[in-house]
Amino acid sequence: MKFIVTSDIFKKLSDMYVGVVVAKGIDNNKDYPAIDKLLNKYMKYSQQKFDGVNVKQDDEIIPYREAFRKIGINPNRYPCSAEALFKRLSKGKELPHINPLVDLNNAISLKYTVPMGTHSLDDARDNIMMRLAKSGDTFIPLGKDEVEEPDEGEVVYAVGKDVRTRRWTWRQSEHGKITDQTHNVFFPIDGFIDVNRDAVDKARDDLAEKIEEIFGVETQIGYVDRDHPEFEWE
Q: What is the pLDDT, as a whole number, of residue 43?
């Protein structure tokens, strides 16, 4: 199976860089105190970091807002996932503990200030693609059952015609979400070569290390950029 970023995406975002982690055989239906501790630690860290700060004016968030505008997404209406997390924490709220994989993903996202996705591979029968939405694509919002049709030309993550994330890193679908019964996972970590490639690589390596250490499974890691638009795993 592959993760593929299509050429029309790089025409819009030539310096885009995506770190990738793939993990298989995970038991996500157990308690992992180490993950709870990590998430609590980086929630407190983020609350302190953004206390009294306008999140959308933060130097690490601005590049994502600019990139959203470049591809035709209003970041005020549809903020990237990392910005949404930090806005919640800056208001003194906490993130809910959902399940170990999602909680670990959120902890690493907070630590490195990068948007990170979690996609179940359990029912994926096709390559995961970051591409422009087209006619016939469908999307089901988290916690709902009505079907939406993404706008044509919208940047999405998709498996076949099943859109897994709308508006790049804005909102994930009901299909592909991580549950207690998820065993195989794909994590994309979105960033930019000339802005925060180092942070993306560190987040990727840290996530892979934590997965191997806590869940006891092997991971596969890689990246995608304009010169390497595909990443394949076994």
A: 96
